[in-house]
């Protein structure tokens, strides 16, 4: 399980080889064997002995800013795998051979988007005909993207442009399928311009941390990006690799809004935008985790949906060093 500390005044420390969480006068102890990671936002506090206990049990600690973006991590000090995997990733980067991988990740994202819209429309037969052209446009753009060939450098602008047009269709459709009170005008971030995007941004921030963790465990360097180059001085591979898994957040956020479970006191109006507040985070995080932990059938195994990321990261790493014939 992930341990989320997102309430002001939360205090985490070690007691008798256990984690003890204190929120005001309430105390709770949790065995480190039950925790896979600790995620901290807001004004929560953690002691050095709790950090030491986490590291002893290979539990990473992730810090999120007010937008939900990771800004720091305390990680157990050992490589996830052989450095040969990292060298192979560098070779792909230096020889500009990444188009096939980036196309695959983005194509999976687009497939997820199209299938989600189709699923939503099957439950809305009265409006389904209105979105036939939108789906056809998305499929046509997807086909065009799949036909790109050559180097990633030569195709990067075209690829990002096609992906952007598809995403525009996707989010415009989601906007129309939630209650009119929450209709929004496309994607926005830092800050979000509307409540829907505020929830998306926070959810994506949590997802970034999970993708980074999966990459590191698999021995993949999160800073060696392909489409998002390392010139940004950011975890570029995380931005590349996250694309197929954004749907985990999209679905949770969409259903919360479509089922009218979002309350105005979950977010605050700030200068030029909207931001989740403490009440919103306390409500949203358990819902997000429940979605992540949904058990599905994947690659002939029953697993939590979120564990796809780790399975795929290991497959990609093993492919890079010749232990698999595909990724």
Summed up, the helix count is 10
Distance between the termini: 27 Å
Mean pLDDT: 89
What structural class results from the helix and strand content? Answer: alpha/beta
Strand order of the largest sheet: 1-5-7-8
CATH superfamily of the largest domain: CRISPR-associated endonuclease Cas1, C-terminal domain
Q: What level of helicity do the residues show?
A: 40-55%
Strand content: 15-25%
CATH class of the largest domain: Mainly Alpha
Sheet having the most strands? 4 strands, mixed
Low-confidence stretches: none
Total beta strand runs: 12
Q: Which architecture of the largest domain per CATH?
A: Up-down Bundle
Rg computed from alpha carbons, rounded to a whole number of angstroms: 21 Å
CATH topology heading of the largest domain: Four Helix Bundle (Hemerythrin (Met), subunit A)
Quickly count the domains: 3
- Helices and strands, in order, run as EEEEEEHEEHHHHHHHEEHEEH
Q: What general outline do the C-alpha atoms trace?
A: globular
């Amino acid at each position: 399980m992930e341990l989320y500390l997102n309430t002001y005044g939360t205090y985490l420390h070690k007691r008798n080889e256990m984690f003890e969480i204190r929120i005001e006068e309430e105390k709770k102890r949790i065995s480190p064997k039950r925790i896979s990671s600790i995620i901290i936002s807001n004004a929560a506090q953690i002691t050095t002995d709790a950090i030491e206990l986490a590291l002893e049990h290979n539990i990473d600690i992730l810090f999120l800013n007010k937008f939900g973006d990771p800004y720091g991590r305390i990680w157990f000090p050992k490589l996830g795998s052989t450095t040969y995997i990292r060298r192979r990733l560098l070779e792909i980067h230096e020889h500009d051979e990444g188009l096939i991988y980036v196309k695959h990740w983005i194509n999976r994202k687009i497939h997820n988007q199209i299938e989600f819209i189709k699923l939503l429309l099957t439950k809305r037969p009265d409006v389904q005909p209105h979105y036939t052209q939108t789906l056809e446009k998305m499929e046509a753009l997807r086909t065009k993207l799949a036909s790109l060939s050559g180097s990633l450098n030569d195709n990067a602008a075209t690829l990002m442009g096609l992906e952007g047009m598809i995403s525009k269709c996707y989010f415009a459709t989601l906007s129309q399928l939630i209650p009119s009170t929450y209709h929004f005008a496309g994607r926005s971030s830092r800050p979000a311009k509307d409540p829907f995007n505020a929830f998306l941004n926070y959810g994506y921030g949590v997802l970034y941390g999970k993708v980074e963790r999966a990459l590191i465990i698999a021995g993949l360097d999160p800073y060696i990006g392909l489409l998002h180059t390392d010139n940004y001085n950011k975890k570029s591979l995380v931005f590349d690799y996250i694309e197929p898994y954004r749907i985990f957040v999209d679905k949770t956020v969409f259903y919360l809004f479509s089922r009218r479970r979002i309350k105005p006191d979950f977010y605050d109006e700030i200068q030029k935008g909207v931001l989740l507040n403490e009440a919103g985070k306390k409500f949203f995080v358990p819902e997000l985790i429940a979605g992540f932990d949904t058990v599905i059938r994947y690659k002939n195994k029953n697993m939590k949906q979120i564990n796809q990321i780790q399975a795929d990261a290991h497959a990609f790493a093993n492919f890079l060093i010749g232990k698999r014939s595909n990724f």
